[in-house]
């Protein structure tokens, strides 16, 4: 029996997330207040009482999801015994706190630096993403590759039959029409700030690389299955390289979950806001148990 803990990314947020932890757990409250100090603004006010629009700002969303996920994991105490961890996109930073590769303060600073760098990259060129349902991954990849006058790439391999694409606004619109014509059940443009996990994030990748270079990483207590390589990683230098590469490369979530199952994961625990990841895990591996912490 092996326990895999998985951590969600941007999009899982909701107003009110984490308030129960803040109100009922003194250690959790102290960590939330520590986060307010590090960030220089009261992110807890936005998380607990803000509007959906306030929470959707990348500079708020990413640290907010990270905080909820990590503080929930830390509040488990001695019962938190992961055999392996993984995170979807942003969730990799939460996973790296869970397996003790990063400490809380340093990880939060990296997440905030990442969020700000991504926001700047989004502002450089209009770009977006779209969710594609009901087509094989290979067909989606083929159609994206056929568009040569605009940038369109596969960005998130979420589960069989669900792939998110990323690219220029014109490229995504063109791809959606072609995907629908090819039989996709849906090809829906998402309300996101830009083309995450695509080459358009190159400026952010460079900024994150510099921030990671100046951050202390420790030996992990268990392997992390990283988005970029979809396999177990324990070497600190490899972890750093994969974290940086992730910004301009696709999130191989389907492949990561299958690798965890192949390596003996029997129970998946989602740690963070929402239930998206446990739903994806059940679609990827129907016999695998998945639930929220």
The pLDDT mean sits at: 96
Number of strands: 10
Give me the secondary-structure category: alpha/beta
Arrangement of strands in the largest sheet = 2-1-9-10
Low-confidence region ranges: none
Cα distance, first to last residue? 17 Å
Using the 3D structure, state the CATH architecture of the largest domain. Answer: 3-Layer(aba) Sandwich
Work out the helicity level. Answer: 40-55%
CATH topology of the largest domain: Malonyl-Coenzyme A Acyl Carrier Protein, domain 2
Describe this structure in words.
- It is a single chain.
- This protein is α/β, with parallel strands linked by helices.
- It folds into two domains: about 1-125 and about 200-290, 3-Layer(aba) Sandwich (Malonyl-Coenzyme A Acyl Carrier Protein, domain 2), CATH 3.40.366; about 125-190, Malonyl-CoA ACP transacylase, ACP-binding (Alpha-Beta Plaits).
- About 50% of the residues lie in helices and about 15% in strands.
- It has helices at about 20-25, 25-40, 45-50, 50-55, 60-75, 90-100, 105-125, 135-145, 170-180, 200-215, 235-245, 255-260, 275-285; strands spanning about 1-5, 85, 125-135, 150-160, 160-170, 185-190, 225, 230-235, 265-270, 290.
- Strand 7 and strand 8 form a beta hairpin.
- The radius of gyration is 18 Å and the shape is globular.
């Amino acid at each position: 029996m092996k326990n895999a803990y998985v951590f969600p990314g941007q999009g899982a947020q909701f107003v009110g997330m984490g308030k129960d932890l803040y109100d009922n757990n003194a250690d959790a409250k102290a960590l939330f207040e520590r986060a307010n100090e590090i960030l220089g603004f009261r992110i807890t006010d936005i998380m607990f009482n803000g509007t959906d629009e306030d929470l959707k700002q990348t500079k708020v969303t990413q640290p907010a999801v990270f905080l909820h996920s990590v503080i929930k994991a830390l509040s488990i105490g001695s019962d938190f015994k992961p055999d392996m961890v993984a995170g979807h996109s942003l969730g990799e930073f939460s996973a790296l706190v869970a397996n003790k590769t990063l400490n809380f303060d340093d990880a939060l600073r990296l997440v905030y630096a990442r969020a700000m760098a991504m926001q700047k990259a989004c502002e450089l060129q209009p770009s977006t993403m779209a969710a594609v349902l009901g087509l094989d991954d290979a067909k989606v990849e083929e159609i994206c590759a056929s568009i040569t006058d605009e940038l369109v790439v596969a960005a998130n391999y979420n589960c069989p039959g669900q792939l998110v694409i990323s690219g220029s606004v014109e490229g995504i619109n063109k791809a959606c029409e072609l995907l629908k014509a090819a039989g996709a059940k849906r090809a829906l443009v998402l309300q996101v700030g830009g083309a995450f996990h695509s080459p358009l994030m190159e400026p952010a990748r460079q900024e994150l690389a510099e921030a990671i270079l100046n951050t202390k990483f420790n030996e992990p207590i268990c392997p992390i299955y990283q988005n970029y390589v979809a396999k177990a990683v324990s070497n600190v230098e490899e972890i750093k390289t994969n974290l940086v590469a992730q910004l301009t490369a696709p999130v191989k979530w389907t492949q990561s979950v299958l690798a965890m199952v192949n390596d003996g994961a029997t129970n998946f625990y989602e740690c963070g806001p929402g239930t998206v990841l446990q739903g994806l895990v059940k679609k990827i591996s129907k016999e695998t148990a998945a639930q929220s912490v």
